[in-house]
Every structure is written in structure tokens, then in C-alpha cells.
């Protein structure tokens, strides 16, 4: 983007979408700024902003309802209407794919996520949603392949953290550990943006026997953590039976992430 203010606003909105922080005043303000200032030619950027502002009362609540096995038909109908109205919006297709996956309709989930990826193949929110969708369908190889094909594993801490996390959980060998070690030192990214990647590397160090080095990384991840990074830190503290940081204080500061809540509840 040529306009640095728009670029900054997009970062705020994209990060809030990834961690499902729909109450972030900064992200809400950024989304409104994008809608009012972004050129009409920047279609995906404007769609991203609209999608974020619609979230508290739309897709996220629909997914929660489906998980409670209520109103699934109504949710599908609503999302179908959304993609009919906005057929080139990858975010709408991604929401539908996640909903299908949650309902166990895996063929439809794969098809709709394929469309989402074709429309937003370099969008970190779409990529992480796709990876989460394929993991829900117990297809870690496909989840990792999507992230690899993006070409962002070496340069984007959000994508690198997803790739490493999936690879570790599925006993696949990540090719990006060494690159990730460089990314976590890159101060062009905020601590918040790097927190999940730092936590992932810390966990790997601990699993490999380097407990002291791993704990140091976990503490660094908790400097300004996402909910997922905080959950990782809590899990490590329980495994090691030691206090790594004041988790109670951190929990009060970190906004709840639906992504993390689902992971922790086994959904």
C-alpha cells in the first residue's frame, strides 16, 4: 500500500481478526478508517474492514451456535446468501468452509475453502483459517501444504507460527525452524505479532531438553501475548510444574480468543 496510514490500519484489523478480538477499540477505529479512506480499487482491504465490523453479531456467533448444534440450517443459509451477494469475498467463503467443517460436511468444506484460497491466497487470515479448517478435518498434511504454498512461512510470524504448531502437533518435521529463529528477533514486527511464534519455539526447546532456553522464550512470548500464546505459556507452566509468569495478571489483560477457546475445549 502506498498510504502508510492505511497500511497500519490494515495490520490492526488483520491481527484482530486472527485472534478473534472483535472488541478491540483500535481495530474498530482502524476498520472504520479503512472504509472511509481506502480507495475503491482496494476491494479486498475494504472487504476485510467490513468483515471485521460485522463479526460480533455474525459469523463468530453462528459458529458458536453450530457448536451447540442449534440453528445450523439458518447459519448455512445466511452464509450462502453472503457469498451470493459477495462472490469475490474470500472471507465469506472461508467462514462457510469453517462452518461446513464444524458440521462434518468435509467435501463442501474443502470446496468452499478452495474458493476462499483462490481469492485470497496471500491473506494471512484466510491462510490460518484454511489451516484450522483442514486440521478440524484431521488433514494436517493439507493444512501445512497450504501454508507452504503461500511462500509466507519465512517472512510472516503469524504464518510461521501456524506452520510450526501444526507440524509439531502432527509429528511432521517443520522446514522453517531456523528461519523462525530469525523472525522472532525481527523488531519490525511487534511482540504481539511474534508472541505465538516465540511460544512455539520455546515449547520445542523444552521438548528437546533445553528447558532453561525454552522457559526464557516463553517468558519473552508473554511480554505482550495473544490468547493462544498465553494458553501455551499456561500449558508449559503446568507441564514443568513451575511459575513462568503471573498468569492471573496476564489473563486479565489479554482479550479472549475464540480460536484459543476452541482449541482448549477440544472443539
TrEMBL record:
InterPro entries: TPR-like_helical_dom_sf (IPR011990), TPR_rpt (IPR019734). PROSITE patterns: TPR. This is Uncharacterized protein.
Amino acid at each position: 500500500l502506498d498510504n502508510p496510514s492505511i497500511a497500519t490500519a490494515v495490520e490492526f484489523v488483520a491481527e484482530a481478526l486472527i485472534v478473534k478480538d472483535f472488541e478491540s477499540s483500535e481495530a474498530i477505529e482502524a476498520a472504520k478508517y479503512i472504509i472511509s479512506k481506502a480507495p475503491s480499487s482496494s476491494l479486498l482491504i475494504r472487504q476485510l474492514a467490513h468483515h471485521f465490523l460485522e463479526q460480533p453479531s455474525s459469523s463468530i456467533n453462528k459458529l458458536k451456535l453450530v457448536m451447540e448444534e442449534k440453528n445450523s440450517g439458518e447459519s448455512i443459509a445466511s452464509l450462502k446468501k453472503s457469498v451470493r451477494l459477495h462472490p469475490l469475498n474470500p472471507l465469506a467463503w472461508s467462514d462457510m468452509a469453517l462452518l461446513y467443517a464444524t458440521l462434518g460436511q468435509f467435501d463442501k468444506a474443502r470446496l468452499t475453502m478452495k474458493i476462499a484460497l483462490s481469492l485470497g491466497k496471500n491473506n494471512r487470515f484466510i491462510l490460518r483459517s484454511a489451516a484450522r479448517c483442514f486440521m478440524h478435518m484431521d488433514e494436517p498434511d493439507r493444512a501445512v501444504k497450504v501454508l507452504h504454498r503461500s511462500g509466507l512461512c519465512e517472512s510472516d510470524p503469524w504464518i510461521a507460527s501456524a506452520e510450526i504448531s501444526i507440524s509439531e502437533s502432527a509429528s511432521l518435521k517443520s522446514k522453517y525452524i531456523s528461519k523462525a529463529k530469525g523472525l522472532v528477533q525481527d523488531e519490525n514486527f511487534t511482540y504481539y505479532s511474534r508472541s505465538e511464534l516465540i511460544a512455539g519455539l520455546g515449547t520445542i526447546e523444552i521438548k528437546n531438553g533445553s528447558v532453561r532456553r525454552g522457559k526464557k522464550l516463553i517468558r519473552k512470548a508473554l511480554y505482550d501475548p495473544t490468547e493462544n500464546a498465553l494458553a501455551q505459556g499456561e500449558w508449559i507452566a503446568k507441564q514443568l510444574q513451575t511459575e513462568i509468569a503471573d498468569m492471573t495478571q496476564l489473563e486479565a489483560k489479554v482479550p479472549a480468543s475464540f480460536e484459543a477457546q476452541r482449541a482448549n475445549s477440544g472443539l
